[in-house]
Amino acid sequence: MLPHLHPLPRSFYLRSTLTVAKDLLGKLLVRKIGPKLLVGKIVEVEAYLGRRDPASHAYRGKTKRNEVMFWEGGHLYVYFTYGMHFCANVVTGREGIGEAVLLRAVEPLAGLEIMKRNRGLRPNANVYDLTNGPAKLCEAFDIGRTENGSDLLSDSVMIAQNRGGEREVVVATTRIGIRLGTEHRWRFHLKNNPWVSRR
DNA sequence: TAGTTGATCGTCT
DNA sequence: GACGATCAACTAA
User: Fold this and answer.
1) CB A74 within 8 A of CB A65
2) Number of C-beta neighbours around residue A14 at 10 A
């Protein structure tokens, strides 16, 4: 059913952040928790360009919180916000750069029942509410503090090529939930995908 | 449908 | 001490 879940190579992440952000659309977010397998197609992301981007956590340089953003590309930066939510980012570029791509929404493909349970939703809940937001997808995929700094080429969290996924139309808009940096259209999503947040 | 608000706490000023 | 890369519940119209 889901053959060849093989992680993308390190070189995928060692390119410009905007390029990686667009290329992440359509790829598979894969989470393995013991025997349980969760898979979602990435449908919405935002790029955060480090020291040159006032909206980025890395704008003022490295801190204890954002340290992982400055690691080599292909790691997962997970942060805690609003006192209750986690959000997950894909670190891009070479070590010391401090750039990342926020995963904002995925289309659930496998492990829907587990995601519903992780989200605390009833079995008959609307599937569109499962993973249509950055904090929602983290809850659904059970991504939290423990996953901060995970290598995306490892097994527990990986991003894999979506085989047979044909080319889709990408839409660029301004980023959501920020005060500075609103002039840039660094949010990318797949056109008309029902899991994209704020349609 | 649009706009407002409360929840809740780690991080940085 | 203020606020945030959010979400859900609420109000008004």
Assistant:
1) no
2) 16
Domain that holds residue A182: 10-190
Nucleotides of C under 7 A from a protein CB: 4-8
A199 CB below 7 A from strand B atoms: no
A196 assigned to some structural domain: no
A183 located within any domain:
yes
Residue A41 corresponds to which tokens in the numbers above?
């197609």
CA atom of A87 to C1′ atom of C2, Å: 21
Residues A10 and A72: their CA atoms lie apart, in Å, by: 9
CA distances from A68 to A3, A21, A79, A176, A198 (A): 31, 18, 10, 22, 28
pTM tops 0.85: yes
User: Does a structural domain hold residue A126?
Assistant: yes
Q: Tens of pLDDT along A17-43? A: 999 999 999 999 999 999 999 999 999
In CATH, what number is assigned to the domain containing residue A28? 3.10.300.10
Element (H, E) at A118: helix A112-119
Q: How many domains, in total, are found in chain A?
A: 1
